[in-house]
Amino acid sequence: MCSKQMWSRRIPALLLLFCVLVPTTFSKTAFLIPPKSQHFFELTNVVSMHDLSRTSAEEASYILRSQLKVNSVWNTERDQLLEVFITYSKLSAPAKARKSSKNADITKIPDRPFYVSLVAGKPHKVIAHTSRDQSLLNLERGFASLLLLQYQNGPVTEVDVSGKCNAFYAVKSSTNIEKIKTDCSHWDLKVNYRAEKALGITQVSQEIVEYELSAEGALMQAISSEKHRIGLAAKPDVGSEVSAKFSLTHLVESADEVKQLEFDKLDDAVESLLEWYRVFDIEADVDGAISEIKDTTLKNEIENFSADFTSENVGKQSLARAIAELLPVARITKQPEFVEILKSHKESVHPAIDLLAAVQTIDAHNAITEIFNFNGDDDVEFLEQYLQSLAVGTHPERAIIEDLFKRLQTTNENEKITNEKLQDTVIQTVAALTRQSGFDPNDPLLQQIRNYLLDNLSEKCTEIDCKIIYIRALQNLQDVSTIQTLFDRAFNGAAAESVVALQALKSFSIVNFNEMQRRSLAEIFYQNKRKFDSSARVIALDILLALKPTKEQLSELLRYLNSNDQHFEVKTFVIQKLRMVAEKCPRFRALLKSCLAELPEVNNYHVIGQKGLTTVLSRELSQTPAFNETLLSTQEIYQGVLKRGTVELLLGADKDEFSSFKIGIYTSGLSSFVGDEEDVPEDEADDSPATAGMELTVQGILLRPLVFFSGQGELMGHVWSGTASDPTPAYQATILAEDHEHYVILASGATVYMRVVGTRSIDLNGKVEFSLWNRNANTLIKQNTGAAVVGRMVAGFTYAKVENKFTLTSEPQISLQADIDFYSGVKLCMKLERPDLILNLSNTKSVYLTPSSYYKHIRTKSTHKLAGRTLALNQKNNEMCNLIFSD
């Protein structure tokens, strides 16, 4: 009993003694390489490449083994200078025959040493020969970084070969220490990227370094293990992963005497080496050779895709893939070659124009302006195609924006844009590119463009159509300083102007709106001061709901449903919008349920069962293993006729959604043909001219609208001639989607390069059949899309590299059919369908050993099929369809 009590008293004392002695022991040995000694180490680097699906057990990897002779040639109690010789190096990789390997010696590494300076025991600089290549210099920095070690538990910020990192140390024992590294600055060296999360990539990176020390504190082994996983944000199971192990293992200590540099200061010792050497920071630089495109031209590459690179393939995955594959080469191509391609490929001029738009360099732009003329009507079709594809780009060169803006301002008659449609497109493109460039708010070019748009809107435009052009441009610009101008137009402008201004406001993030502006939106919806167009009211409601209404605000909206307002279609919109938001948001659903429970005068069939035909719905189009896509449809009916309808495709990534494509149809003045004016107040009858058109928003960029007809004469001309009874193209283009490029520096100093290019080839067409005799109409809008994402991850250095190339292709389609019977009353039946979808994924893993010209490829393919579906709309639509097709 006594011995137990004595032992229990000794345990805390022993623990305290250990905690004191361990740091003291470490602090006595400031250097992992003892002073004035010579040691031999084996340096090993294993780099492996994987596809995320891991469909093949075969590995694409290489192993570098080097022997190092490390001499401590100068030191004080705090500082040290190490001299390091690479005595031999060899490579190995899995052979083409399984269970064997291919070896190659590296004979070109110079026999001159490199040096590492340590300050306070920590690696500080690398002193290397001026002729060293970037890969070798980075490897030397990697060696130096393995000597970076702290001797106390806890977090710390360090700078090593991977840049500035957050590190956490765990002292396991007096001879074992573990370091976990996260958030290194050189793990995410972006070149190009998209701000929209759904079109971006996800990256997970981590490194663990384990140290084994001798009892005296000398380094016996350091092992760095790291992984970098990069996948598509919208489809995280597609991508690549590189894993690497970088180790330094002690072999033997030599008894040879190490000649010392006779200097009093470290700086003087380093200075003595600088006749043939240079001093480098420990942070690595990107080895650009890993991403170089060699021995090819764009013209040659186009020939390789000659069967796919044609106008006939628009809307197909073959053309989308061809442009995605060609884009990296095109971005380093110069103007003369672009001009030659445009002149010699007349049969594929449309794909070539889309390719040059995706390039976004001034060389590509100058080639377009050299071939096509902005002054006149002959080249309008080609220039509009170029500008609309260019507008969705992510990083246009500034000179492109300056050139287009100059063309808008010129007073030279020979350079003026005389075609009104082309001028509209240039205005929208300049605004969109300015927004995509992310200029500083004080940037002179941004200020000039913003002032140009505002001046034309407020002073030079006298007609509504002119004002609408510049309001749409403000939507594409999305400059927060223009929000109040848009509110003024929405609140005080004519009906059409108000609707377009509210559409522009809806495109802004809700964080930019204040309480006063929220009240202005409420006044528009409730028509407190004057009457507003029904389209303006429903858009205002969209923004109000996005602003997350309070319980009092939501209750006010519900009480509106029981008001004497005769706009049943607006009330129907409110009900369906509330239901849709409640389905997606549990918090809002609970709030809505609570409000309805307190409002029995609203929560009944008489109020909730509105008789309007307006439809608001959200439907899931596809999910894993395909992309997560949702369809959002709004069909606003007025007097029995579609007044404004939208079909929007949303691409999801985690909780974020991105509008990839939006079709908007607008009409007015059609009530006399197919309308039902029952219950419509006399002062609100639609007596405006018969007009109809289409608005397209591509990846958040609003394009110039397409006008189907304007005036009763044009309408009747289409009816009698059957102009659109056959499928008619409304939009055909191959546009850039994913566009990501960045580098990662591994612990060994090896460079990882990642590039992802995604394209969408879109063919949107429609047809209309109209019969005044039978008093019915049939419309069909069909979108064929060819989608391709091509990704490449390569890791390595001068003498070896591993690579994975993945290609994801599909051809999603969607069709919207509407049948209208206005023989007796108005009956509208809509069918929304998505055919079968096949998703193709291929991966090619490769390993290359430069000294022996050895290579190996491992190819895998997989296919996923998603069954087609007809999307349910609502019960009212089902009833209408049953009535129309009852016979």
From TrEMBL:
Q: What is its main location?
A: endoplasmic reticulum
Q: Please provide the Gene Ontology terms (biological process) for this protein.
A: lipoprotein metabolic process
Leader sequence residues = 1-27
Recorded GO MF terms: lipid binding; phospholipid transporter activity
Q: Which domain of life is it from?
A: Eukaryota
Instruction: Please provide the record's keywords in A-Z order.
Output: Endoplasmic reticulum, Signal, Transport
Keyword field contains Transport = yes
Kindly list the residue ranges recorded as spanning the membrane. Answer: none
User: Which cellular components does GO assign to this protein?
Assistant: basolateral plasma membrane; endoplasmic reticulum; Golgi apparatus
From the Swiss-Prot or TrEMBL record, state where the protein is found.
Endoplasmic reticulum
Ranges for domain Vitellogenin come to: 32-661
Matching entries from InterPro entries are given as: Lipid_transp_b-sht_shell (IPR015819), Lipovitellin_superhlx_dom (IPR011030), MTP_lip-bd (IPR045811), MTTP (IPR039988), Vitellinogen_b-sht_N (IPR015816), Vitellogenin_N (IPR001747)
Q: Which PANTHER family match?
A: MICROSOMAL TRIACYLGLYCEROL TRANSFER PROTEIN, MICROSOMAL TRIGLYCERIDE TRANSFER PROTEIN, LARGE SUBUNIT
Q: What is this protein called?
A: Microsomal triglyceride transfer protein large subunit
GN (gene name): Mttp_1
